[in-house]
Amino acid sequence: MNSITALIVVTALAFLGWGYYRARPFGGVGVLAWLQSVVLMAPWLIFFGLFAAGIYLNLVGILILFVISTGGYIYLGNRLRQLGKATLSQRAAAFRSSATETSTDSVTSDTADATTPSSDTRSTVSSGEDAANPEVVPIPMDDLKEIQTIFGVDTFFATETIPYQEGAVFKGNLRGEIESTYQALSEGLKQKMGDRYRLFLVENQDGKPVVIVLPSSRDPQPSTTFQKVFSVILFLVTAAACLESGGMMLGFDFFTTPSRYLEVLPLAAGILTILAVHEVGHWVQAKRYGIRLSFPFFIPTWQLGSYGSLTRIESLIPNRTALFDVAFAGPALGGGLSLLMLLLGLVISHKGSLFQIPTEFFQGSILVGTLARVVLRESLQTPLVDVSPLVVLGWLGLVINALNLLPAGQLDGGRMVQAIYGRKTAGRTTLGTLIFLGIASLVNPLALYWAVVVLFLQRELERPALNDLSEPDDARAALCLLALFLTIVTLLPLTPSLAGRLGIGG
Fold first, then answer.
1. Strand 355-358 relative to strand 305-310: parallel, antiparallel, unpaired?
2. DSSP state, 90?
3. Strands (E), 317-439
4. Is 79 exposed, middle or buried (0-12, 13-18, 19+ CB in 10 A)?
5. Which among 51, 90, 341, 388 is placed 20 to 30 Å from 353, CA to CA?
6. For 413, left (φ over 0), alpha (ψ -120 to 50), or beta?
7. For the segment 278-293, what is each residue's pLDDT rounded down to a tens digit?
């Protein structure tokens, strides 16, 4: 059994085991949600597990696995909704009962905590804008007194008020259900103060809920004209890089022979289409939640055409579910299109196809290598294999989307981890990703380039949501695990020993 493939399967099983451990306290709802994760991951686990054991499913077998998985996922989803309604009704009754209690738990904090909020709080209220606003005007006392009246024993019982910059931090006890409490507090604030302030419900450094109220003047600002122009320039450079990349695939330098543009145009258009579909996914979900996005800042490269793009969120994020959906939609559409291109390209590849690729190239990705072995079979035992251009485009698209799914900072993967597991976990995965890229850069210059991009441009976490306490459902957690799993098997190579046993590069 191949050690890397086996390790990936074992790691995925460990994640599922951890998910079951987290789901058990939630009873039937938690277990059903966990089963959704299992059903969603099962086709990939079965495929790679059998592959590592030397058993190769054909394309029909893989499709059957996905059909069964989809049917099971839908069935469990219906059961989960039915059971969830009953559970939520019970919880609502429990919250109403607890709201009648008059416990007044004391909150103690040292001087440092009282004057210096946690790193999460600082990122909520500043977002790097303090340098542009060195003189901070404290919240007016009349406003503070009005804001204090929105709290109550049935929502959030405030026990301590700490003036912070132009707003205030309210410590206390959360008495009601998270979402309904947030809605009640934010509506109360709007009735009292209009549109002058924003309310954030977040977790403090000590793990307890706090309410932060900040003036709307500190809302994220839209891109400047210079930033928009710079984005357009990067797009034009990326388009040129895609043309050059297409020329390199065909064995010539496009810039020295621009008259051959008709040859490279389909390849360049394919790369740009994958990039565009990725961005459309982000924009569609952002519009659904009323979130404003900046123009995408594409990262050009002569080898791939582009490493993807960096997109800033320029408005407040309503909740962590919205953050996940916006982050996930881009790689889901872009990666899905790339995978479809790859599979279609493998199926239609034949002797005499446009590209001749050394079979050793299929060792560069566990996912691509295994899919190629399933479809091309004995063709991979020759030194060169003829493949359709769709294979190359699909492969490039998978790599581009996988790079953006790395769980670091404000990359799509980092935003997804932050949405599902919280800011502390996202900070740890960012550090771990940077360490991994640093080690990988010893053998792959691409890893070093991407490590520099993350370190200097994307290492900071996304700002917390307005309601940063409500977690996304377990179905989204399962999608997050699946996306990270596919990222790993896309970027990690096959070992030479297993590739040799499979006849890849033989």
1. unpaired
2. H
3. 355-358, 384-387
4. middle
5. 51
6. alpha
7. 999 999 999 999 999 9
